[in-house]
Amino acid sequence: MILFLKLLVAHLLGDFVFQPKNWVKDKEKKKIKSPKLYAHIGVHAIFLLILLQFNLQYWSIFLLIIISHFIVDLGKLYLQKKKNKRLFFFLDQAFHLLFLGIATYIFQPFDITFSTIVNENNLLLACCLLFVTFTSSIIINILISRWNPEKNNKSEEQSLANAGKYIGFLERLLVFVFIAINQWAGVGFLLAAKSIFRFGDLTASKDRKLTEYVLVGTLLSFGLAILTGLVYSHYGR
Fold it and tell me: Would the pTM of this model clear 0.90, i.e. be above it?
C-alpha cells in the first residue's frame, strides 16, 4: 500500500500541483511538438525519483509510469475535442491510476477477485448510492409533478442547465455519507446551509406556492437520503 501511495502522491503533484494552465494550453495547441509536454513528463520523473528514493530496484516501475503517462497524455491531446473534454479528463486519470496499480502489482502483488469486489456489502452500497441519486430524483419528480410553480418563474431561465438535478444528487449523497458515518450534525449543517442559500430566492419571488414547492422537495430529498443512510448503517459494513 505504501508503494502505491508514493506513486499516487507523485502523480497528484505532477498532474495537479505543478502543471500550470499555460502548460495545458500549450500542450493542447502544439500536442507532440509542445515543449511543455516534455516538461510535464520531466516533473513526474523528478517526483517519482524523489519518492522512490532513487532506488534502482524500482527502475521498471519508473519506466512503466513515465512511458505510459506520456502515451496516455498524448492520446488524450489528439483525441479530445471541446465537446468531450470532460470525458477525456476522467478517462485520462483512470488510465493513469490503472498503470499506477499495475506498477504496484509488479513489486507488491495483491489479489483482486470477483468475489472480493462483488460481495454483499459492496452490492448494498451500490444499491444505496443508485437509489439516493437517480432513483430518488425520479421519485421526487413524480411526487411533486402535480405542482410546478417554477415553470412560470423567470429566474429559472437564468439557472444552469440541470443544476437542480445535480444539486439534489450532491445533497443526498452528502446526507447519506453523514448518516453512514454517524455524523448527524452534518445533516443539520447541510439543511441550514441550503435554507440560507434558498432564502434570498424565495424572499425575492414573494411566491408562497414556490416556497411550499421547494420545502416539499427539500424534505422529500433529505428524508429519502436519511432513510437510505439508516438502511446502510444497519445492514452494511
Answer: no
Listed by start position, the domains of the chain span 2-107, 117-147+160-235
Nearest Cα to Cα of residue 44 among 79, 8, 76: 8
Contact 46, 54 (CB under 8 A): no
- As a whole number, mean pLDDT of residues 109-124 equals 83
pLDDT digits (tens, 9 = 90+) for 24-76: 999 999 999 999 999 999 999 999 999 999 999 999 999 999 999 999 999 99
Q: Name all contacts of 209-217 with Cβ < 8 Å and 24+ positions apart.
A: 209/147, 209/149, 210/149, 210/150, 210/153, 212/147, 213/144, 213/147, 213/148, 213/149, 213/150, 216/144, 216/147, 217/140, 217/144
Residue in this structure with the C-alpha cell 402535480, named with its chain if needed: 146
User: What Rg, from alpha-carbon coordinates, does the chain have?
Assistant: 24
C-alpha cell at 127: 444499491
Q: Residue holding cell 441550514?
A: 192
